[in-house]
Amino acid sequence: MCLNHQLAQFSSAKADAFAERLVDSLNQGAVCLMTSIGHRTGLFDRLAEIGPADSARLARSAGLNERYVREWLNALTVAAVVEYDPHNGVYTLPAEHAAYLTRAAAADNIAVFAQYIPVLATVEDAIIDCFHEGGGVPYERFDRFHEVMAEDSGQSVLSSLFDHILPLVPGLKERLAAGIEVLDLGCGRGRALQLLAQHYPRSQFVGIDLSQEAIDYARAQAEQSGLDNLHFLQQDLTHFDEDALADQFDLITTFDAIHDQAKPRAVLKGIHTALRDDGVYLMQDIHGSSRVENNLDHPIGPLLYTLSTMHCMTVSLAQGGDGLGTLWGRETASALLREAGFRDIDIHRLAHDFQNDYYIIRK
């Protein structure tokens, strides 16, 4: 009865439309790989700079192998990313496409995000093991993830830090200029802190991250820049509720970091402890809902749940953590903040940033 009912309800048109979507997904996945290669090799930048060119000229300009460059160009030609003139044998990156594919695009370079696809693919076998056995894949298994995250935050956070993010807290720029104590948790390679330390020499900045590789990189950059008001520590924040010293900081920040933590409740409680009574906690995290049905129209919903499965959730579970996932959402975030002791929580959006929410939090 059930099988007959299903057959009676079967729609060939719906099945065909779904098959077309799957084929399109295969093509778009391939485009992501070619886009990542184009970004990492600088091919998009070179093609935009030199204008129409054949594969030999582009390869010479980029210092790359012509045969590989030609095949890359052909892949993106049939994908309608690059245009090809068969009469002259030249390829062109339209200005409208270059606006979203080159480093000159600054905050709008979508090619940066395409890198996540090949990076995540490197741990597919380990993730499948987790499907069978549980557990997670630790941070150190992800090659280049901190490098890509640094580029990602360079577009979403660094480009907006002074003109859009800091002004969300009235008087914060003035306090930073006068000199305050700042802590950034989950700082990664520390690019945001380095900018702040350079801009506000009277303030003191501390960055903490689980990854030794990221901390080593951040320290080297700070030393090279001669910043004596900037310090980095490698630390597991699992017990930050017990480790945090009371009333140490005027400003605490986390940029896209809390949902990755093994014990986010402990981290938030530690932040509440470490923050001075007149201090501010600035939390940037992914915009979305805790309920999947509310994310059906999210512009990058599939990407975010994939990032969660392949990184954010699994690195937390690898530490025996809660595995909140990328789209832990406003509802869960607000509940955990109140559980940690915060009572004043304002959530902001930036007009140019569909990806993130910015929480301004006080005791």
UniProtKB/TrEMBL annotation:
Residues 178-294 form the Methyltransferase domain. InterPro entries: Methyltranfer_dom (IPR025714), SAM-binding_MTase (IPR053173), SAM-dependent_MTases_sf (IPR029063), WH-like_DNA-bd_sf (IPR036388), WH_DNA-bd_sf (IPR036390), WHD_Rv2258c (IPR048711). Signal peptide: none annotated. It holds the Pfam family WHD_Rv2258c. This is Transcriptional regulator. It comes from Candidatus Tenderia electrophaga. Residues 30-103 form the S-adenosylmethionine-dependent methyltransferase Rv2258c-like winged HTH domain. PANTHER family: METHYLTRANSFERASE TYPE 11, S-ADENOSYLMETHIONINE-DEPENDENT METHYLTRANSFERASE RV2258C.
